[in-house]
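Protein: Alpha/beta fold hydrolase
Species: Streptomyces finlayi
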Amino acid sequence: MNEAKFDEQGSRIRWTESAARPDGDGGATVYVHGLGAMSAAYHAHIAADPALVGRLSLFVDLPGHGTSDRPADFGYTLEDHADALAAALDEAGVRGAELVGHSMGGAVAVVLAHRRPELVARMVLTEANLDPYPPGTSGGSGIGSWTEEAFVHGGGFARVLEHVRPMWASTMRLTDPLALHRSAVGLMRGTEPTMRRMLMESTADRTYLQGALSGELPGADELKDAGVRVLTVPGAAHCIMFDRPDALVSAIAARSE
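Structure follows.
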């Protein structure tokens, strides 16, 4: 396991690596998980596909999630997560990475590409959050509708675990409740400019996957006009890597050389 400091207190963001073959091109594919998830649990089977063997793969756990540290005085905004991810890539000596980001992890990837464009050559995003949530709504299965105190200390975390899908609960229960709540609130708040605007203006190679069972992607034509490849995946909902792993593998394998 590898680690890098991401705040002034010395908190560590951690990741595991799957080594490239000796004849690999030396590039790196970096997998970034969603809210309440872990990278290896959601993406190791994707990276192991024969079509993707040959490049270094990094499975990064964002702050507060999985194996990474969970400082109580950290903001856990999308910008904070992106800066922590940048610290991991800097420590790993990675430049021009291919980021595979799911849901919140896709939003973090977009923010990183905006803040540190030299770190990101390509993004493959699976149902990434591109817009703040409309006023009066709550994201992350209602996590953001709780106050921080009620969620962390008043039973909110346990209530949410009871109601989310068992697969999601299996990794969410390993997430720090404070980090989970602040991450959900940060995701609802979004960024300025928005993640959508950052994605449209990015010079990186960009692919966006939308599960057909999730409905149409709002603003898809606008994204296409900006050069983003928008692919609808039949038979898939939000977790495309589980519903249609072949489609995600195909999208990652279709690299622009």
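Remarks: The chain has one domain: 2-134+190-253.
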